[in-house]
């Protein structure tokens, strides 16, 4: 069971690159295999016993709003809010208002595709670390680097995160867009917003600056659906097949 863990999905991006490449549906409704992205995440979270799943979507995407409402009416534990946020960090801030700041949470962006079995192991370790007080958060990372602007993650031999970097001469891990954090993170988030900061990576750096103890959890392959070509690669992940990085993205 989720042990009081709250789950959240950021689905507030424009998906402009997909649209330019001929994908007509909004990104949250893009299908990987036979499931759209937001449905797959809801299913993966519910497999971990999620009783509350909070979603933020773009206020101009009525198709997504209607889809989330249908999920809710079908009995899925989905609560959603609409907005027009300038960054993922601001989307998380809006989600914090919706879900409250008193419980740990696990957050992903809607276009993040990963293996469900690996996520189950990740959630178990996140819960253990938080229950034991060993860490304040567990961040998903991967050595599969296929992002145009990856966030490199430096960690020691115990997987304690020491830095988040925009570049790294010897990259090993990059952020996988999967974040598990204790309620302590909300204070940092609110201060970031008050200071006028933006971007999720700056929030993560602020977590370290505020003394939060973060661990890294390696996933095998994680795909962000930024381009039409990513959809086929993400389908391979769902089928537990090997995926090769795109040379053009590195």
Describe the protein's architecture and organization.
It contains eight helices and 13 strands. The strands form three sheets. Strands 1, 4, 5, 6, 8, 9, 10, 11 and 12 form a nine-stranded mixed sheet that branches. It has a two-stranded antiparallel sheet with strand order 2-3. With 250 residues, it is of the alpha/beta class.
Question: What's the helix and strand layout?
Answer:
Blueprint: E1 6-11, H1 16-20, E2 31-32, E3 35-36, H2 37-47, E4 53-58, H3 62-73, E5 78-83, H4 88-99, E6 105-109, E7 112-113, H5 116-132, E8 137-142, E9 152-155, E10 161-165, E11 173-181, H6 184-194, H7 200-209, E12 214-219, E13 223-224, H8 228-238
Parallel strand pairs: 1-4, 1-6, 4-5, 8-12
Antiparallel strand pairs: 2-3, 6-11, 7-13, 8-11, 9-10, 9-11
Describe the biggest sheet?
Answer: 9 strands, mixed
- Strand and helix order: EHEEHEHEHEEHEEEEHHEEH
CATH homologous superfamily annotation: Spore Coat Polysaccharide Biosynthesis Protein SpsA, Chain A
Shape: globular
Q: Rg from C-alpha positions?
A: 17 Å
Assign a percent range to the helix content. Answer: 25-40%
Distance between the termini: 38 Å
Report the count of strand segments: 13
Number of helices: 8
Low-confidence region ranges: none
- Which CATH C-level class is it? Alpha Beta
The total number of structural domains is 1
CATH fold-level assignment = Spore Coat Polysaccharide Biosynthesis Protein SpsA, Chain A
